[in-house]
Design a protein that fits this description.
By secondary structure, the chain is an alpha/beta fold. It has a single domain, classed as Aldolase class I (TIM Barrel, Alpha-Beta Barrel), CATH 3.20.20. The strands form 2 sheets. Strands 3-4-5-6 form a 4-stranded parallel sheet. Strands 2-1-7 form a 3-stranded parallel sheet, covered by helices on one side. Helix 1 links the parallel strand 1 and strand 2. Helix 4 packs parallel to helix 6. 44% of the residues are buried.
Length: 305
């Protein structure tokens, strides 16, 4: 690969897993420790993302966890928490809390119960969030994951929001799994921060100006992703990208959240990491043991030297 300037200051953000106790309460201490570890590995924090089991967490829990992270010295400017909820007042409340704490931005799902949702309705939703929060410090990132929400964020909607709020609506996470969609976002909205949802797409996305990635498997390979971003344009990047793809494919073949929690628990020697909130089901030995064997065979190391 010919040397190429690194696109922007490309970053990796992790939708940090949320550890639960046996009674289903959040293990706040383990959550803080894990977020601190992710930061130390070169990742920012997209707490309350899909792989954080965000929609199994209550509004009060999320606000409390943000406060606890900041109190523990986790830099708020390294956090882009998920704030999108079905109820507009709750989305506003969580977004206000994130801004007040100094978070770098918010990652905001569209409301996902009433379908189909029109572009006009979604534009009104985002407009009301922005105007209710009323802060120049709000940096809002859209979250496109239509296979879960059933509510796509269209190119037309993105264009309208950028035109109306160019200093506020600054980027998007594209979790559609459709490369053509990501590529179109990158080409049609130069300067807009587009984050693919998989590190496996970096070799395609970075040359088009991607801002990095926000990836589930950053929970287990944050340092390698961060290193790959820094190595963009060098032969080292190619080797790291190949390694990242292997690990990503291994996890994608299993239920992602239980698989990630199983591996994190094994790394930190804490079996409580296996707990998930219903309707998810914890990792089963029938597939978790082969998963660990595959990772070992691939030379996976959650914390490389």
């Amino acid at each position: 690969m010919a040397a190429t300037p690194q696109p922007r200051n490309a970053r990796v953000f992790t939708p940090a897993l949320t550890p639960f106790n046996a009674d289903q309460s959040v293990n706040v201490e383990a959550f803080i420790d894990f977020c601190r570890w992710l930061i130390s590995q070169g990742s920012g924090l997209a707490v309350f993302g899909t792989n954080s089991e965000a929609n199994s967490l209550g509004l009060e829990e999320k606000i409390l966890l943000l406060e606890k992270l900041v109190e523990a010295g986790i830099p708020a400017d390294q956090m882009v928490p998920g704030t999108g909820l079905c109820a507009l007042p709750e989305t506003i409340a969580l977004t206000r809390a994130a801004v007040a704490l100094g978070c770098a931005g918010t990652l905001t799902l569209p409301p996902f119960y009433f379908k189909p949702a029109s572009d006009d309705g979604l534009f009104d939703y985002y407009t009301r969030i922005i105007e209710a929060v009323g802060s120049e410090r709000l940096k809002l990132y859209l979250y496109h994951i239509p296979q879960f929400t059933g509510v796509p964020i269209t190119m037309t909607l993105i264009e309208r929001l950028i035109k109306a709020y160019p200093r506020t609506v600054v980027g998007i996470k594209d979790s559609s799994g459709n490369w053509e969609n990501t590529e179109r976002m990158l080409r049609e909205f130069p300067g807009f921060e587009v984050y693919p949802a998989s590190e496996a797409l970096l070799e395609k996305a970075l040359p088009l100006g991607a801002a990095g990635c926000i990836s589930a498997t950053a929970n287990v390979q944050p340092a390698t992703i961060a290193r790959a971003l820094k190595a963009w344009g060098t032969s080292e990047f190619d080797a790291l990208q190949a390694q990242l793809k292997v690990v990503r494919n291994i996890f994608q073949a299993q239920p992602m959240i239980p698989a990630l929690k199983h591996v994190v628990g094994a790394h930190f020697g804490n079996a409580d990491w296996s707990h998930v909130r219903p309707p998810l089901v914890a990792a089963d030995a029938s597939w978790s043991a082969p998963l660990m064997a595959q990772l070992a065979e691939a030379g996976f190391n959650m914390q490389p030297a």
